[in-house]
């Protein structure tokens, strides 16, 4: 009997991209929704074009509506003139599905000749600060970010962001993880602002964050339901006690 492959459970459907060697930034819902908020702001500020979506039997049965129009919950956007591709999700990915989804996702990233991959997530602390912690798949990349982030010394990155970083490491792909510090699981646009500030420094981008700061209270309110869904999804994963978890 033939074994089932990841591709049978995960599909990526997209228009041909114009970028030749894009920087890929991904943000899936996790602690503080830092990745989701960061990516949504980048998409809006750069006026990125919707190019496709990711679909999977692992995803919950739902439709996402924007101004009455149905969109896929996991979407791909491109700013070809800047060679940037953003992957954003409006649904939390269950830990049991992270391996298969990340494998197909990295296959696709390799097929479009990704230059660099940035995985954005959150890290919960009690310091009250909004630092950005960084990690990388190589010493060379760590050198590139060490003066712009707090190097993430010991711990684990949970969920799909962790799976993506592991898969990049196994394949020798250049990838960095940026973890926005947040006091808890609630939506945190201010942590996203700090992540964007670091992205601007690392990749010499000019993404303004004034609008995001001005809408912080509104975003916290609108995304509170998604944050609750993330808590439910992550609580379904078996606990790991040897290190704190971030995602």
Q: Could you give a short description of this structure?
A:
The protein has 247 residues and is of the alpha/beta class.
Secondary structure elements and their pairing?
Blueprint: E1 10-14, E2 23-27, H1 34-46, E3 49-56, E4 64-66, E5 69-71, E6 74-79, E7 84-89, H2 98-111, E8 116-124, E9 132-136, H3 139-145, E10 150-151, E11 156-157, H4 159-171, E12 175-182, H5 189-203, H6 210-214, H7 216-222, H8 224-235, E13 245-246
Parallel strand pairs: 2-7, 2-8, 8-12, 9-10, 11-13
Antiparallel strand pairs: 1-3, 3-6, 4-5, 6-7, 9-12
Helix pairs in contact: 1-5, 2-4
3D structure, described in words:
With 247 residues, the protein is α/β, with parallel strands linked by helices. It has a single domain (19-237), classed as Rossmann fold (3-Layer(aba) Sandwich). It contains 8 helices and 13 strands. Helix 3 (139-145) links the parallel strand 9 (132-136) and strand 10. The longest helix has 15 residues, at 189-203. The chain is globular and about 45 Å long.
Distance between the amino and carboxyl termini? 37 Å
- Mean pLDDT value: 87
The rounded Rg comes to 17 Å
CATH topology: Rossmann fold
Task: Tell me the overall shape.
Answer: globular
Overall tally of structural domains: 1
Helix content: 25-40%
Largest sheet: 9 strands, mixed
What is the CATH-assigned architecture? Answer: 3-Layer(aba) Sandwich
Number of strands: 13
**Weakly predicted, low-confidence segments:** 236-246
Give the CATH class: Alpha Beta
- Secondary-structure-based class equals alpha/beta
- CATH superfamily placement: PAC-like subunit
Strand order of the largest sheet: 1-3-6-7-2-8-12-9-10
What percent of residues are in strands?
25-35%
What is the helix/strand order? EEHEEEEEHEEHEEHEHHHHE
How many alpha or pi helices?
A: 8
